[in-house]
Amino acid sequence: MRVRSRRSILLMVVVMLMSDLLIAQQADTTSQSRPRAEVVKTNQGVFFPDVTTRLMIAAAGVLALGGMAFFLNAKRKQLDREAGIQ
Amino acid sequence: MLTLQQSQRRIYAWLDERLPVRAVIEFMSRKTVPRHKHSFWYFFGGLTLFFFCVQIITGILLALYYKPTPELAHESVRKIITEVPHGWLIRSIHSWSANLMVASLFIHMFSVFLMRAYRKPRELLWVSGVLLMFLVFGFCFTGYLLPWDTTAYFATLIGTEVPRTLPIIGDWGVSLLKGEEEVGAETLSRMFMIHVTILPLIALLVICFHLLLSQLLGSSVPSGAAERKPATPFFPNFALRDSIAWTIGALVLFILAVMKPWELGPVADPYASAPAGIKPEWYFLPLYQSLRMAPATLLGVSGELIVNLLAVVLSAAWFLVPFFAAKANAQRGSRLFTVFGICLILYLCVTIILAYTT
Fold it and tell me: Which helix (H) or strand (E) covers residue B349, if one does?
């Protein structure tokens, strides 16, 4: 059980770091081989990562936080069962 | 080599010798949260606290780069968004969590009102909660000018003039807020100072008081809803439910911040005319729309003055709700209060929609 929870924590940390990797990839100007995400200029002239990059960051967030919610809910069910709460 | 459990036990023992850890855990495990058909609404208080914590963390990160002068403010925010690693995301999370904090605060406050959770002995819990709502409005108002873009500048220019019509304190209040005739360097410096020092200090004190009271008094059961199920122990069962709500809140916040990044308008030009259609943020729209709908004069009195006075009277009455609700304090339902609460919610919704559509 402990090994499984450690693995899930490790997985969550990796997923959470994915957003860092995506941003770092965008800022990296030294490597020519890496694909670089385009930046979007909004009406007011402000730059954000493009929609695809943002979608990937959002997906990483959904995986990390959704996974955490799933894990917490499983723990809640187990504790509720032990306490006799339905 | 120590195992994880042995290390945890040692840390716990070390802390327990120096702090009342055992007493706090015992108190938490004895404390229970009632279960009934309206239990769902209990989560919004904790969710508001969660968004407030996000505000503090992201606010500190933004303050590392922000420069509160008219010459540098806009440029420093632009730099945060474009050059600082993850700056755009942190600013976006800060702005979105402010909005979500106000939304969850409203839901929490109206659910407390409609469930009559303010009744004896929870009067001070209600008063401190209403005080926190006004502090949150203060945070939102003072933080809005900081990017120093066109919308922020002109919205603050209009917003700071609103209290001027109030007798006695109107002019004094405006000059205290602005520090000079026009919105300028003095205003920005004051807004920044209020936003990052005065309000957080007061808010932290009031939050501690509010949380302490809510822990000591426990959750209230609505007068109409009988407890059909056994109560949930606060720790760990309810705390775990709360943490799930926080995680879902974080998920919604993250998706909004990433997919709808908070933008920055062009730098404010005090000599330019105000752009058409400038509106305050949605939580100030009921007051804005009421001022728009008010007649110029009514029985010789300025319509603006009447709306401002009504807002002051309503705010004062809102603080004192538990002291008016004699029936609720006697554990009976009060149809008048329920109708008033529903009418107020409808009025807020209608004015917000009207302000957006007209």
Answer: helix B335-357
* Distance linking the first and last C-alpha atoms of chain A: 23
Say if CB B312 and CB B103 are below 8 A apart.
Answer: no
| Cα torsion B309, B315, B319, B322: sign | positive
C-beta separation of B218 from B19 below 8 A: no
Contact of B252 with chain A, judged by CB distance below 8 Å, is answered with no
Q: Which two tokens stand for residue B262?
A: 């908070």
Question: Which one of A57, A76, A85 has the shortest CB-CB distance to B244?
Answer: A76
- Reported as a single tens digit per residue, the pLDDT across B263-280 is 898 999 988 888 888 889
Q: What does the alpha-carbon distance between residue B229 and residue B227 come to, in Å, rounded to a whole number?
A: 6
- What is the distance in angstroms between the Cα of B229 and the nearest Cα belonging to chain A? 9
Nearest CA in chain B to A57: B258
Place of tokens 């410096």: B189
- What is each CA distance from A1 to A6, A7, B264, B304, B358, in whole angstroms? 9, 10, 48, 65, 59
- Judge residue B77's burial from the number of C-beta atoms within 10 Å of its C-beta, 0-12 exposed, 13-18 middle, 19 or more buried: buried
d(CA B32, CA B56): 29
Task: Give dist(CA B154, CA A48) in Å, integer.
Answer: 25
Q: Is-contact B115 B334, C-beta < 8 A?
A: no
Q: Identify the pLDDT of residue B288.
A: 92
- Write out pLDDT tens, residues B175-197: 988 888 889 999 999 999 999 99
B93, A65 Cβ separation under 8 angstroms: no
B82 touches chain A (CB under 8 A): yes
The pLDDT score that the predictor gives to residue B248 is 97
